[in-house]
Amino acid sequence: MQLKKVFKGLVIALPLVTVMACTTTDNGVDEAAAKEAAAAQAAADQAARQAEAEKAEVMAMQQREKMEAEQRARDLASLEQDQVVYFDFDTSNLTSSARAILSKHAAFLAANPNQSVVIEGHCDRRGTPEYNIALGERRAKSVQTYLLNANVNSSQISVVSYGEEKPAANGTSESAFAQNRRGVLVYQ
Questions:
Q1: DSSP labels for 126-173?
Q2: pLDDT in tens, 15-44
Q3: Helix or strand (DSSP H, E) at 4
Q4: Residue 125 DSSP code
Q5: How far apart are CA 109 and CA 73, in angstroms?
């Protein structure tokens, strides 16, 4: 009789122990799954924050590049309004006003190494064509030398002499001759 009671107790207790064991295992699995889900969510959040930060950095860089390009365009437009330097009669020496103009061009060219410029040398019509071509070249090279001494890269500069072939002003007055004795910086 006693054995029967013990057997009945075992029959009742065994399924309870089994259920308890399974319940405990499920909680362990749930906790592990919850930890994995939390870790995955944290990683996803971190990746989202990093992607957002990278996107913001790219947008800021694009905005900076756009502003720099706009500033470069404004600077270039300003320089193109003041791109002529004048020379005294029969000389290739730079005047002080020419140096002031060239300093601005040199600063721009040094700051923008991808920008190139052609320096055109011109003369008035007095003198032989050969002499005027040579004088125009000396004038253009005088401008080139000034720019090179102001840290402009030589690969940015080209020189051409037109002599008396492209006058800025027609006529035989001293005023017309003075306008034709010039160096012109043409940006490419």
A1: -S-HHHHHHHHHHHHHHHHHHHHHTT--GGGEEEEEEETSS-SS-SSS
A2: 655 555 555 556 677 888 999 999 999 999
A3: helix 2-80
A4: S
A5: 13
Nearest-CA neighbor of 87 among 11, 24, 142? 142
Q: What is the pLDDT of residues 119-173, one digit of tens each?
A: 999 999 999 999 999 999 999 999 999 999 999 999 999 999 999 999 999 999 9
For 115, the 3-state DSSP assignment is coil
**Dist. CA 179–CA 165, nearest whole Å:** 13
Backbone φ and ψ for 150, nearest 5 degrees, come out as -100, 25
Cβ(118)–Cβ(161) under 8 Å? Answer: no
The pLDDT, as a whole number, for residue 7 is: 63
Is residue 182 over pLDDT 80? yes
Nearest residue to 158 (alpha-carbon basis) of 131, 187, 126, 125: 187
**Cα(105)–Cα(183) distance, integer angstroms:** 13
Residues with Cβ within 8 Å of residue 175, at least 6 apart in sequence: 169
Q: How far apart are CA 72 and CA 77, in angstroms?
A: 8
Integer-rounded Cα Rg, in Å, for the chain is 41
Write down the pTM of the prediction. 0.71
Q: Identify the three-state secondary structure at position 114.
A: coil
